[in-house]
Every structure is written in structure tokens, then in C-alpha cells.
Amino acid sequence: MLKLSEVTKFFVVFLFIIFLASFLHAQEKTAYPDIPRIDVHTHIGSDLQTVSNFLDLREQLKEKYNIDVAMWINLGSSGSPIIDLDSFMKAGQDRILCSISDYSPHDGFDLPPLELPKKLEEGYIGFKIWAGPPARRLKPGQIGFPYIDNPAHEPTFAKMEEIGMLATSIHIADPNGPFDRRTRWLPDPVEYWRQIMAFRHVLESHPNLKVVTAHAMWAICQDAQIDYLRNALATFPNLNVDLAATFQYFNLVTYDNLRSFLIDYADRIVYGTDIGQIRDADGISSRMEAYNRSFQILETDKMVDGGFFGSTKTKGLALPKEVLEKIYYKNAMRLYPKVREHLEKLGYTVD
After folding, report:
1. What is the CB-side half-sphere exposure of residue 100 using CA atoms within 13 A?
2. Alpha-helix residue ranges (DSSP H) falling in 81-183
3. Nearest by Cα to 131 from 73, 170, 169
4. Distance CA 187, CA 178 (A)
């Protein structure tokens, strides 16, 4: 039989364990539950079950981490067009907006430029273009103009510029790391800079083209690349970048350089992940943890086990709240049609 002192000790230890568990659970939750997040770079596609899974993912993020992913921009997926936009939007409960897209590996785009205004009228909010990396886009022996400044693209860019259609997360290069840590995607720095310069030619030819580039233009894997991003954003006022799939490369650059860039150019950066379709409950769970890791990297100063993808330990950037607000939703409201309207319809108070 336990003595009173032993019983007391037992309960003290028991209560301490409960307190510690509650404290650690509380520490997992975001410090910014009031900031809505918009993921501008997703590949939800056209599957309505995936749409339902994304809504379930949202609820689980709120329940476990108090994180509010308010909306997604659906950039489609290769070979998966949106068949019925109205039905899709209804299934997404006003939380998913859609872009038209072209993932075709050939010269020019499938959709004629004169059709672009009609797509805006139908409710699409921009044009996702994947046309940059020739090593992935052109088959061996295939003849074609290898870069985004292909003259065949000019009529499309001109029409987009004319009607103010946003280029949504345009992909124009693949990541190239520092000398001793090249990435598997693009180890050749000469080819990397050819891709980057080809896109600069497009921006120079179309200064009024409104652009969000995918993956921070993949100019975020070396310190010198970040300086190039500074130059590009300072030179082209209609250029913006998303952070999709970049988090796992933050360890390749100098911490203070990256943090300073994100703060100094916070008005031109939007949050994204490059998340794909979610098929089942395991997919919901893994994507929930991936989202939380990416938010921890931006919000805290902790060592985080990976970004949205990958498992490389990364020190959190602890960005100021006003910077997070811009990256998470304010810039998206400015850049993307209908985002403000949908946030207000969903009950958010936005300024």
C-alpha cells in the first residue's frame, strides 16, 4: 500500500507530465492564428475527391496547429483540365480559385491568344505556364526553341500584357546550388543562367506583363542568386515571386542574406507550396505536417526538420508579423483577381 507521501509524489509527477505535454502541444501551435494563409501554387487538378480532401486538410490544420489556410490557387496539372469550373468552385466552397495552364512540351501554347479574354470572363484568374527547362521539356532529339523567350510565345505574352492577365507561377528554370552542393535538378550553372536570362528577355520585351514566378524564379539556392533576385525585382516592378518548393534549399544560402531579402522585398513575395493531389487520409496527414514545417520556418527561430518537401534541418527565419501578413495573404489580394472578394465572402476582415 502506498504511503501518503508516495501518493503525493505520484500525483505531482503525473500532473507535471500532463502540464509538460500540454505545454509542448501549445508550443506546436502557430503564434499567428489570426493571419489567413493563401497557397498560390497548388496542383489540385480537377478531381472533386481531392477538393474534398483539401477542405479536410484545412480543418485538421486548424484543429492541430491553429493554422488557417484560407484559400488555394489551383494551377491544374498536366493533362487534367477543369471540365466544369462552376461545379469545381462550388465543391471548393469558395476556397479554391483556378488558373488555366499549359504544360505542353512544344513551341507555342495550345490556347490561342485571342481566347485568353474569354477565360478571364469564365472565371479563371490567370495563366500558369511551364515552358522553361529544355532538359525536362524537350525529348531527346526533339527540335524546338529551348527557352521561354521563344518567339512563338510572343503573341501570348503580348495579349496577356494587353488585358492585364496574370502569369501565375510561371516556371522558367530549375534549381542550381552552390559549387560544392549542386542540385540534381540542374547541376550545370551555365545552362541555369541561360534559362534565367531567357526569362529576363521576356520581361524586357513586356514591361507591363504582370508576373508571379514559380519557386522564387529558382534564384534562391545561392547567395549570388538572391542578389540577382534583388536586381530583377528592383528593375521590373510587375515581377513577383512565390516560395513554392524553396524551403528545402534555404540551408544552401546565408541565413541573414535570405532573411534580409524576404523582409526587404516582402511586398513582392507570395506563399506557395507546389502541393499536388491528395488521395487519402495518409496524404492529408503528411501534407498537414509539411504545411506546418513551412510555416515554422517562416514564423519561428526553431530548427525545423525539413521544409514542405525534404528533411534537411533548417533554422527558422522568425519573420516579423507584418512581413508574414504580406507573404501569406496581402500580396495575393493585390495580385490575384477575386481573392479579396472571396476572403470577404468567407467572412475575413481584410485591409
Report:
1. 22
2. 85-91, 116-122, 134-137, 154-163
3. 170
4. 9
| pLDDT tens string 285-336 | 999 999 999 999 999 999 999 899 988 899 999 999 999 999 999 999 999 9
User: Please, are residues 335 and 210 in contact by the beta-carbon 8 Å criterion?
Assistant: yes
- Note the pTM of the prediction, 2 decimals: 0.91
The rounded distance, in Å, linking the Cα atoms of 7 and 38 is 51
Is 67 within 8 Å of 36 (Cβ atoms)?
no
Neighbours of 230 (CB within 10 A): 16
Say if strands 69-74 and 96-98 run parallel, antiparallel, or are unpaired.
parallel
Which domains, from first to last, does the chain contain? 34-345 (3.20.20.140)
Q: What share of the chain is helix, strand, coil (3-state, %, to 5)?
A: 50, 15, 35
Cell numbers representing residue 154 in the block: 510572343
**To 10 degrees, what angle do helices 154-163 and 189-205 make?**
50
The answer to whether 304 and 295 are in contact (CB under 8 A) is no
pLDDT in tens, 102-116: 987 677 888 999 999
E strand segments, the chain:
37-42, 69-74, 96-98, 100-102, 127-129, 167-170, 211-213, 239-242, 269-270, 303-305, 313-315
Cell numbers 481531392 correspond to: 50
Mean pLDDT of the chain: 90
How far apart (Å, rounded) are the C-alpha atoms in residues 120 and 112?
14
Amino acid at 117: P
Close Cβ partners of 134 (under 8 Å, ≥ 6 residues apart): 144, 146, 147
